[in-house]
Specification:
The structure is a homodimer. By secondary structure, chain A is of the alpha/beta class. In chain A, 48% of the residues lie in helices and 10% in strands. Chain A has a four-stranded parallel beta sheet. The first copy, chain A, has a four-stranded parallel beta sheet with strand order 8-9-10-11. In chain A, helix 12 links the parallel strand 6 and strand 7. Chain A starts with 7 loop residues before the first helix and ends with a helix. Chains A and B meet through helix 1, helix 13, helix 14, helix 15 and helix 17 of A and helix 1, helix 13, helix 14, helix 15 and helix 17 of B.
């Protein structure tokens, strides 16, 4: 009766149009990208699997895991995630480039421990005897020694252990008290000290400030291992192979060269050579980096898997607590390394807890001088600043966003608080300044309590280029990119497989690759993507038959 | 040396300009509002107190309260908050209008219990005997009875208590087992059932879905009390007096008239009159509403406090699970009430968990018809839809935002997920559609795990009108608006007292008040604001002398 005079159809048209306008800036909007029929079909299949698993897996009760939901706390959810079909599919997806990764936490902790155990030079020490009451609160320290100074003291769990003395890591493991689990107990303890566990992230250290303390501790455990050159080379290789295994074909690694100028820990010096005592020049370090990358590239080509590995480059990083004078000196070193390794050093960043350390504005003069020096020398080392990795509103870290952008940052590391800044969002959209968004890192480090609470959809709907990154997978356990892609995919009903595909494309687009190398990377990705799409459609066809 | 050729001053100028542009849309931006010298001084004083307390209170260790920080979980922080000087100042601030409040949870739970105990008609029942092992998991039910059916059974904690039978609430209290704390134990139990405690919000029910179950339970306990007319009148009075006490001079109350059409609980009928059995017409209800408001207005005038209370109006609400046919009938009732109480009924809304119940689009036809009928009758009942109270991206509740806006909502209840929608943000800014932001509600209901994680600064920096609201203070314990204002103030270094003042101004501006009444409300607020500012400046002067 009355309904005749109400314009339902007109309303529906307005609604479709409004939703379309609202999503017009998205990377997956049909106006900007034409998907193939196979892509659309694969997307439908994946949405369907997600929807089924939302009920069957995230709607079910799980023993010992309360509060289960899609996009929930990663460290608790990981055991569930790996069992999903959705995750299995994502592990096979070509991810493009990994553009935000700290080399110091790039490798699985158990692999790091294995690498340490392979080196007789590596020793371990503790500030106290390890027993049932101290084990959870004590972190080990590692250190390489020359052969004539190897120590074979009995072990860390002996009453006679003298605090802070060094024991061969192999011996310490062999002799670890059987009441604490023996060698396996040793492994659990060391891996625990190198990683963040759910109890820490969601219980004992459940604020941004507290979890950064544990995060820093984990780095302190890992650092001396990585500084030992034989491990450095091996862990880089292990990292790149793990990337390839997860479908990542290219990476720009934030590499800390441990400047002497840090107030970090005076006992920490430059990298240590295989002899356990000589220091290693940066030149040697970069030569090894180059060799490892070239070796893998050759191996992959020989195996006919050239598309799976384009390469790896370095974003040169320093810590945010150097003073300005030291920074000037370090930046000169960076310039000279760039002149020697122009293909390898592709950017510069300052790292460390933005709220705890100096804001970018404090480094204004050295950073402007650095840019000037680049012009003089005819080189280009763009900035890739961490900025806005914070919940603060107008805090130091939040204000870093203004400076990162004014200083011409090419991408922004995290940019979590960028959502608060309409003008900066506009600049990032217009200048195509990509955000290196690290979903799991942000959640574990308590910027967001679960993925649905993450600002990612805001960036996406505002047309800001986004690349998904893993940040410190060695510490968080999100090796590769499949876990981060998974958390993003299950936390939205708008985002689908094709959205992830567009983000993977953008990761190559927003990398520092140029010219022929970039084209090769993009074509290789496109070939693999087409195969991946075909695989999903076939999988479904087989399942239906 | 080199620094001469670097344009530091130029950089600084660009920086100031960029920050200014980024904040240009804020309600407190100097381009849109000229603050007095006293206001600027008061703002400085308050920022200073905040900064000192960030260290002295939020930087200190508190026994039994781990993880203390500004803007932390409200239910845990409340005991600390009330001791701060900042909070004491905010309790004295004139807040303007409270525009998002559910009448069913508008009054402190212990007051609700006191009101129940004053009524011999009120009885209580439980689904089981209350003892040490059942008390935490059992919620009581209340019901009014006529005098000839009063029940004096011994008590709820007796072994002989027959589940689901009714006991006089006074007797049940008197006879409550002393092992469970006796009458005080009864009070704790009932108040606990009417409220959400920290263990529930941050432990046992720590997801949006689970906490909504507890939230719904609390409403089920409160509802029958409020439906009993003598309590209805008293609790409305108690609510308005509490508002006045906290500096709120006007409110638009979402009033549920408990339509028969609900599938909520068939045993629940319309409101019950003082005789404990007759049902009450909506007309009677609104007459009482009018009387309570007019009485308080007169009392305040007599006390020379006319500026402190402008009045209270009704946003007529129904639950989101009515069917379309029932909704049509209810909307006709709403229209007839509007014709009779044109000054009282100022809007319409549909309430309830947006993810669990029907989306707005399901009600499209009745809602469009309702608008058409308003035109025919020459009345205006604008929509004040709840929309986007969710973490979902593209979920039912998130999609409600499109419909709320297309249907012409005057304000948006919550709009939490609006941040994800650039086009809708633009529309809200341009059409001045205010968001009724409920910081503590959002946090307790687990949309945000603490205030710093809340999207409020995004709305503010994008120039979207925001009014801060308490939502369900009876259940959350955030009586008045001081707690919500506090959480907002301590979670930002950009927002200050003057920002809160502008939001208070906007609460009157974005209310349904018009003409002379609005002008009177605004002038009254301005007078009180000027006094408040003066008070802060004097307080500081006295402190310094």
């Amino acid at each position: 009766m009355l309904s005749n005079s109400i314009d339902i159809a007109g309303y529906e048209r307005s609604r479709v149009q409004l939703i379309d306008e609202d999503r017009a800036l998205r990377v997956d909007h049909p106006r900007t990208v034409k998907f193939t029929a196979a892509e659309i079909e694969a997307d439908r299949i994946v949405r369907n699997i997600r929807s089924l698993e939302t009920q069957s897996i995230w709607g079910a009760d799980h023993e010992d895991i309360p509060h289960v939901f899609p996009g929930m706390e990663f460290l608790t959810a990981k055991d569930i995630i790996v069992k999903t079909k959705l995750f299995q599919i994502l592990t096979r997806m070509p991810k493009g480039a990994l553009l935000h990764i700290h080399q110091g936490a790039s490798v699985d902790a158990s692999v790091m421990l294995r690498l340490a155990l392979q080196q007789p030079a590596i020793h371990i020490s503790c500030p106290n005897v390890i027993n049932a009451s101290t084990i959870l609160s004590t972190s080990p320290r590692f250190k390489a020694f020359p052969e004539d100074r190897y120590f074979d003291a009995y072990g860390l769990t002996e009453l006679s252990y003298i605090p802070n003395t060094w024991v061969s890591v192999q011996k310490a493991r062999e002799n670890f008290d059987s009441a604490l689990g023996g060698p396996e107990g040793f492994d659990r303890w060391v891996v625990g000290a190198m990683t963040i566990n759910p109890t820490e992230a969601y219980g004992s250290h459940n604020t941004v400030k507290k979890i950064w303390q544990k995060f820093g501790d984990a780095f302190m455990v890992l650092d001396p291992l990585i500084r030992f050159l034989p491990i450095w080379a091996e862990h880089l290789r292990a990292f790149l192979l793990a990337c390839i295994d997860d479908g990542i074909s290219y990476t720009e690694i934030r590499t800390n060269t441990f400047a002497k100028c840090t107030s970090f820990d005076p006992a920490y010096t430059y990298e240590i050579a295989a002899d356990g005592q000589s220091s290693v020049s940066r030149r040697e370090l970069f030569l090894i980096f180059d060799k490892v990358v070239n070796d893998i590239r050759s191996e992959m080509k020989v195996q006919g898997r050239g598309d799976e590995f384009i390469g790896a480059k370095i974003i040169y990083v320093l810590q945010r607590f150097v003073d300005n004078k030291a920074l000037d000196a370090e930046l000169e070193q960076c310039l000279s390394m760039k002149l020697e390794f122009p293909h390898l050093i592709v950017g510069f960043d300052l790292v460390g807890d933005e709220e705890a350390h100096k804001p970018l504005i404090d480094y204004l003069e050295p950073l402007l001088r650095f840019k000037q020096r680049q012009q003089e020398l005819g080189v280009d080392i763009p900035f890739f600043f961490h900025a806005g990795e914070t919940l603060g509103d107008g805090s130091k870290a939040d204000m870093n966003l203004y400076d990162a952008i004014l200083l011409g940052t090419k991408r922004i590391g995290h940019g979590f608080s960028l959502v608060k800044h309409p003008k900066l969002m506009e600049i990032c959209r217009e200048k195509r300044i990509a955000l290196e968004v690290c979903p799991i890192s942000n959640e574990v480090l308590r910027l967001t309590s679960s993925m649905p609470m993450h600002p990612l959809p805001i960036f996406m709907n505002n047309g800001i280029p986004v690349v998904l990154c893993s940040d410190d997978p060695g510490i968080f356990g999100n090796m590769g990119l499949s876990f981060d892609f998974f958390q993003v995919l299950v936390s939205s009903e708008v985002t689908g497989l094709l959205t992830l595909g567009q983000m993977a494309r953008d990761s190559i687009e927003c990398s520092t690759l140029v010219g022929e190398e970039k084209q090769r990377a993009m074509l290789a990705w496109e070939r693999r993507w087409a195969m991946f799409i075909k695989e999903i459609v076939q999988m479904e066809a087989e399942y239906l038959n």
